[in-house]
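Cont'd.
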Amino acid sequence: DQQVKQNSPSLSVQEGRISILNCDYTNSMFDYFLWYKKYPAEGPTFLISISSIKDKNEDGRFTVFLNKSAKHLSLHIVPSQPGDSAVYFCAASARNSGYALNFGKGTSLLVTP
Amino acid sequence: KAGVTQTPRYLIKTRGQQVTLSCSPISGHRSVSWYQQTPGQGLQFLFEYFSETQRNKGNFPGRFSGRQFSNSRSEMNVSTLELGDSALYLCASSRQTGGNDQYFGPGTRLLVL
């Protein structure tokens, strides 16, 4: 069963605007959350992460928000750039399962000029 | 420094055959994790090796196995291939077991006919 869900398979945003990618999870034991970016023919690249003790983490244009009560996290990209066009995977891990990554199925982001 | 390398990049096999995939981690990384990516199931954790020992295992049948060598290189073997094993197989390395700093290779694309 899918413990991490990304319900939007795709998203299209204009350059310069905000991109918001959403992710929901079901396992309350998850205590670490990550976002990966994947270009075709390449492996996923780590983007940003957040521990369950925080509700926000920022790194340049990328901010991840965590709402533990709703079991929801989101990735904000501001401003969006055409080079951000890629598939974004949300992942979660739990200490009690050895921090194996549980991935969502990804959201394909297209940033148009 | 050099990234994670995987060989071969592409592979075609027939049902019933067996296959071995190889992963060389980033220098100094002692943990190697394997993932399977399919369109239907997304990215799923197979297993993790650290210091030549399997530390964690996902929910895959025993046909999927792996090992790690003293130089941290890892191999993954799938026996009695099935059509459903067609997927992109990704490996990721990190410094420590359960490390959240997982760096992915480009993957091996396996097609089972």
